[in-house]
Design goal:
The structure is a single chain. By secondary structure, the chain is mostly helical. The chain has one domain. Helices cover 71% and strands 0% of the residues. The chain is built from four helices and no strands. It has helices spanning 2-20, 35-54, 63-83, 91-111.
Length: 114
């Protein structure tokens, strides 16, 4: 369980590192893929790591893990604005972050039995 927690912490650092980059430093992604889909997948992975590290198999939705992922997404958007690298925060990016973490936590809760 400790390895998953370390993985989650490392993943959060990577997310903040990528958010710190200016738009010119970021790799060009496929143009056919929506920015919101990328945010959804990024935070779905975070939700899965959060479940692996802290999820309990006792039933009930893990609202605390969801709150962490959603708040981290909001903080990530604010981080981009605070650094001022010509990247602007977007409420819809934060919404996609929250949706991705919610969906992955729900799927983990249903299918990942401990």
């Amino acid at each position: 369980m400790v390895k998953w927690r370390v993985g989650l912490a490392a993943y959060c650092v990577v997310v903040l590192y990528l958010s710190s980059m200016s738009p010119g430093d970021l790799p060009d992604g496929p143009k056919a893929v929506s920015d919101k889909l990328l945010h959804f997948v990024e935070y779905a992975f975070m939700g899965c790591l959060a479940w692996a590290g802290f999820g309990k198999g006792t039933g009930g939705f893990p609202w605390g893990l969801f709150a962490f992922c959603a708040c981290f997404g909001i903080a990530d958007e604010c981080w981009q604005d605070w650094l001022g690298h010509a990247r602007t925060p977007d409420v819809w990016d934060a919404a996609a972050d929250a949706a991705g973490s919610f969906c992955s936590l729900l799927l983990c809760m249903v299918f990942w039995k401990r």
